[in-house]
Amino acid sequence: MTASSGSTASEAGQRPRVEGDREQEILDATLDVLADVGYDRLTMDAVASTARASKATLYRRWTSKAVLVIDALKSQKEPQTAPDTGTLRGDLLGMFCGMGGLTDQRQTTILASVITAIGRDQDFAEAFRRDFIGPKAELSLKVFTRARDRGEIRDDVDLDIVTAALPGIVLHRQFLLGETPDATAIERVVDQIILPAVAVGPTSHRTHEQKDS
């Protein structure tokens, strides 16, 4: 390889890519298409059309639709830090109610749209669990660990199991039973299942309401 060709290759690798507001517009368009048709039917052409961009522009930044979808999922504007209300109940309600939580219908619609891909595309499933589910799981673990440090949770509670219980129950009821989750549903699971399961001593809905007031 000559010095000239090496320089050309280096320059090509350093060309500016889609970024900033334009990148977010494409990622938002990806989420729109994903919510509308699902992962299996999403194509780079459809995203390019929705974003009013060329397919070549997309491929310069994202090598496949799996990479594009993962980036789009990660780009969603939702809390990146765990709430710290002083109680486990308050933290759980703050985390799972509202934008990016289990009551966010756009979020759950998008989640439903990738369920089939998780079972069919191993590479996508690994990236989805690592880059999208992983950070959410870490926030949940932080909330429960902090509650244990405060003395709200027994030392023998398996945090790996209990952190998955709330989303597991709510998403089961939504996807399999057709129930749309709301704040009241989240509160019922927290008060009737999660808190009694981890509590050091007797607990009740009234007790935790008083703590959070």
Q: If you had to describe this structure to a student in words, what would you say it looks like?
A:
With 213 residues, this protein is mainly α. It has 2 domains: 3-74, Homeodomain-like (Arc Repressor Mutant, subunit A, Orthogonal Bundle); 88-212, Tetracycline Repressor, domain 2, CATH 1.10.357. The protein is 69% helix and 0% strand. It contains 12 helices and no strands. Helix 2 (20-37) crosses helix 7. The chain is elongated. Mean pLDDT is 84; it is low at 1-16 and 204-211.
In short:
With 213 residues, this protein is mainly alpha-helical.
Please give the alpha-carbon distance between the first and last residues.
71 Å
CATH architecture of the largest domain: Orthogonal Bundle
Helix content: 55-70%
Quote the beta fraction. under 5%
Mean pLDDT: 84
What's the topology here?
Blueprint: H1 3-13, H2 20-37, H3 44-51, H4 55-61, H5 65-74, H6 88-96, H7 105-113, H8 115-120, H9 122-150, H10 159-175, H11 183-198, H12 205-212
List keywords for this structure.
Tetracycline Repressor, domain 2, 0% strand, Tet_transcr_reg_TetR-rel_C_sf, Arc Repressor Mutant, subunit A, DNA-binding, elongated, 2 domains, mainly alpha, 213 residues
